[in-house]
Amino acid sequence: MTTRLWRPAVLAALVMMVSTVPARAQEGPQSPVERAVRQFVRALALHDAQAFTAATLPHPRGTRLLNREPLTPDQRSEAERRLESLQVRVDDEFFLRGRPTERDASGDYPVGTVGHAVAAGQGGPTPLTLVRQQDGWKVDLRWVLAMIDLSEATGPPAEGTPDYAIKRMLLALLALDRGEVADAVVPGANLDVLFAGAPRQREPSGVLEASAMEMPLVEAAPGEFYRLPSGRIVEGTTAPDTKVMVGQFGPVEMPFLLRRVNGAWRVEAEPYYALINR
């Protein structure tokens, strides 16, 4: 893997959100998903532990995001001022068990639906994943925590890990290196599938490579379903030789199916340029 391209992602300061960010579509002004994002950011900005718990899915490491030090009146006023400028964009696609879904009779999405939003700040846009629960939309903190882990890492992923396998494959794909890609995917994979939609020449800026290396990855659990770029639905698993990993390539969710082959993790071939080009 080309380690010189590694640049750790610094978690955007969610309480400093004042700039705009491009996104595909909004669900609507002050939609339930947008309100959930704003409630989450507000809880962080105001150091509100109760509101933070109400806005998020439970996670054993979640509280590390929350500053519990009380704000002074001036600090609270400044936080409120910044919150007025918060920019939120909601993706127009929602998924239930990996498949697109629509609003139910109540006007909201069914329990278990997964949605995505991007909150914009001075530190850059921050993608967020949300899940519809009985009592409303909640932020799934796993990708936020994975971003923090990346920002604190001292180097690229360790060789032999699923993260290494995925990022090695993506870097080779972006470099248009068919030989390296063939070595990173499962044996016998159809490389034409992987290179479908690829440019004739490598994109020279390095932005895509940086996005690949800065992509937070989370392992899907059993009962979680994701749609691969080909449209195939895969479920998270605890099988020792199979993993479903899900990354955030910028604002785009990017799932991967991996197999352990001769002791090494390899990625199954999928048309990833369909997501890279979005």
Brief descriptors of the model:
alpha+beta, disordered N terminus, 4-stranded antiparallel β-sheet, 278 residues, 2 domains, 12 strands, 28% helix, globular, 9 helices
**Biggest β-sheet strands, sense, barrel:** 4 strands, antiparallel
**Gyration radius over CA:** 19 Å
Strand content of the residues, in percent? 15-25%
Give the strand order of the largest sheet, numbering strands 1, 2, ... along the chain.
Answer: 1-4-5-6
How would you spell out the order of helices and strands? HHHEEEEEEHHHHHEEEEEEH
In total, the number of strands is 12
Unreliable spans: 2-28
Taking all residues together, what is the mean pLDDT?
88
Termini Cα gap = 24 Å
Q: Please count the helical segments.
A: 9
Could you say how many structural domains there are in total? 2
> Helical percent range?
25-40%
Look at the helices and sheets and give the structural class: alpha+beta
> Based on CA inertia axes, which overall geometry fits?
globular
Overview of this protein structure:
- By secondary structure, the chain is an alpha+beta fold.
- The chain has two domains: about 15-150, no CATH class; about 155-275, no CATH class.
- About 30% of the residues lie in helices and about 20% in strands.
- The chain has nine helices and twelve strands.
- The strands form four sheets. A four-stranded antiparallel β-sheet has the order 1-4-5-6.
- Strand 2 and strand 3 (about 100) form a beta hairpin.
- It starts with about 30 loop residues before the first helix and ends with a helix.
- Residues about 1-30 have low confidence and may be disordered.
